[in-house]
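Please, structure for the following, as tokens.
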Amino acid sequence: MTIIQNALEIVKTLQEHGYKAFFAGGCVRDMIMGKESADYDIATNAVPQDVEKLFEKTIPVGVQFGLHIVVKNGHNFEVATFRTEGSYSDGRHPDYVAFCTPENDVKRRDFTINGLLYDPMKNELLDYVGGRDDISQGVIRTIGDPIERFTEDKLRMIRAARFACRFKFPIHPDTRQAIIQLAKNIHVVSAERIREELEKILTGPNPHIGIQLLDELHLLQEVLPEVSNMKGVRQPENFHPEGDVFVHTLLCLSKLVPATEQGMERPSFPLAMGVLLHDIGKTVTFEELDRIRFNLHEKVGADMTAKICDRLKTSNAEKERIIWLVLKHLYFKDAQKMRLNKLKRLFANEGYPELAELCRIDALASSGDLSDYHFCQEMFSKLSH
């Protein structure tokens, strides 16, 4: 059975036992947009104890929030009881939860495009918040008062940028202004949650738009001040006709090969971070003597990258790979003069394919000269056989 067939079975079982049950959130949004969804969340008036009784295998991931995972044929489905939530003392979790009607459940959600319910048995869409219109007009807008929605959960500010870059939708002016007003409060969110959102932005479609948006919304200077500091750092025009370090970095991000709707693999998080941070050291090594220079910016950048990874609490393996990519990102320019043994050591590193992609992107976003990249790829191919 496909994932959607399993989801339909769960809704059917709930409805046959007298409960209301709908597809909810992102899967409904994707359906309206003609996209295939990877996850199907289900909202119901069945309370957690009812859900446990009805299904053979359930995982109680948040019973206090009315939340269970129902496991069906190897697929996990989030089944949540309609709920309304109280105040958010920690800016992340509700102080209390009360079960409620479908309409009130939707009104606690983040954005109108994610606030839709759909009854697949009746082929009926329930839209209490104007989500269908905002999908058709292409706009990211909070449900209700944006200050209230972002005060409840500060992570929603970064999520707004993620959805905007994913769908190439502008953020509604009121929603945008609320984010700018509250941007400094993002630090109440854990580093892990921030990193997860950044990873989705960087490895998803249009990462350059996502980083540009975070900058415009005043969030970049809060979560990645080192990247924000790239703005206005000039580069020698003969090597970088495209502009300053920030412009170059956005151009590099735009050249990351994105995942497609057909399920092609996304760029890895270490590669995407390597692209974002490869020139981070230029912000502190800038010198203008006979010409603009950035002496040892790759080494300084690697040290800065280590601190950024620690702050974002990346895994040790990811941290090591990202640092290595930043440290070695200039390696290809000397490859044609390297001894064979040195090249072999480079090619033997597990991270070589990501480094090659970073060097290809870096060259495309500056001089456009891919001769060093092609030389390395040809030698890699010869020495691998």
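The chain is about 50% helix and 10% strand. The chain has a mean pLDDT of 91.
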